[in-house]
Amino acid sequence: MKQYIVDAFTNKPFSGNPAAVCVMDKWPSAEFMKNLAMENNLSETAFIVKEEQGYHLRWFTPGSEVELCGHATLASSFVILNYVEPDKDIVEFHTLSGKLTVKKKDNLYEMDFPTYEQKEIPVTDEMESAFGVRPVKAVLGPDLLCIFDSEEQIRNMKPDQSKLADLPGRGQDVTAKGKD
Questions:
Q1: Taking the domains of the chain in order of start, what are their residue ranges?
Q2: What is the C-alpha to C-alpha distance for residues 145 and 137, in angstroms, rounded to an integer?
Q3: How is domain 119-175 classified at the CATH fold level?
Q4: Hey, which of 10, 16, 21, 51 has its CA 20 to 30 A from 43?
Q5: Tell me, which fold does domain 2-112 have in CATH?
Q6: Which residues are catalytic?
Q7: In this structure, how many other beta carbons lie within 10 angstroms of the beta carbon of residue 2?
Q8: pLDDT band at 170, cuts 50/70/90?
């Protein structure tokens, strides 16, 4: 097994969103993958095995396997298209969320992801308490997405992890319009 650490969504080391990417010849046990993800202590560790129809990709957090992870898919694409098969400019992953295709265009990567039904839900006092700032909008699909007024609110946010666990959704995401 080879393991890479890739910073997604950036062109500078030690910034962006890091993910571990493990390229293997065969699958280890789910317990091994979960333990390695726990040891890596990153939000996601991606595990890849080459198959006849492309690559099989699985993602693990330090606590469990997840159905989809965008930044770890981007990191996995970077590893495959730069180190494993550098002569290619497209990679297909077979995942719990279905087939995901990533195309390399110059130094950029274009990803197609499955869509999920999302619905706007009321902003609650519990959201404000968990994030420390009141969102202006909340949308629920598999994850909770809270939208805030400014980039500064996101950058200065110090969420209460125990209160986040009580919010709806398998995970909680935040966003705001950025200045740059």
A1: 2-112, 119-175
A2: 8
A3: Diaminopimelate Epimerase; Chain A, domain 1 (3.10.310)
A4: 51
A5: Diaminopimelate Epimerase; Chain A, domain 1 (3.10.310)
A6: 44
A7: 11
A8: confident
